[in-house]
Design brief:
heterodimer; B: four-stranded antiparallel sheet; 11 strands
Amino acid sequence: QKEVEQNSGPLSVPEGAIASLNCTYSDRGSQSFFWYRQYSGKSPELIMFIYSNGDKEDGRFTAQLNKASQYVSLLIRDSQPSDSATYLCAVNMGAGKSTFGDGTTLTVKP
Amino acid sequence: GAGVSQSPRYKVAKRGQDVALRCDPISGHVSLFWYQQALGQGPEFLTYFQNEAQLDKSGLPSDRFFAERPEGSVSTLKIQRTQQEDSAVYLCASSPGPGPSIGYTFGSGTRLTVV
């Protein structure tokens, strides 16, 4: 079992819909959680980070964290074709390395 | 610099050849990370520097892999006697404080192909 699990997808949503991306992690000591977006052939870019249980909103993006369930999610509202990419979840113990999932591929259809 | 710069962008190496990959992080960033990404997978951790100190090298797959950051800025990842399984994208990332704190800024990566 990988330390960080994501549904590989592909996840397909129509333009304007809400896309929901999910991630579970195995280490209860994990302290910080990150979502990165990676376009095909490009390097990952940070979208959001979250440390505390609950929701964190930034524009069309909302990260949700539930440490008791070891679950973190990313919601994308009003999805646009330009949101089509692979979304990587990353988890960190506090210092040092982050551990990444294999990503969920999202396709937003016009 | 304004971003994380990696060179070369692409590298083709014959099996058994040594290669050196360079990373120039964002100026002032304390932490520097190297990751390896195979096609269709997430980045896999290789090694981590805080300034010039290599604090974690647990992800280096073999003793053929070596990384350094002698002056706490530019870093080099060296792979000796390359093998086909070393073919991947090598990503460098930096962050302003210890660890990933507010997340990484990644470079564009070096795509290594071993033939």
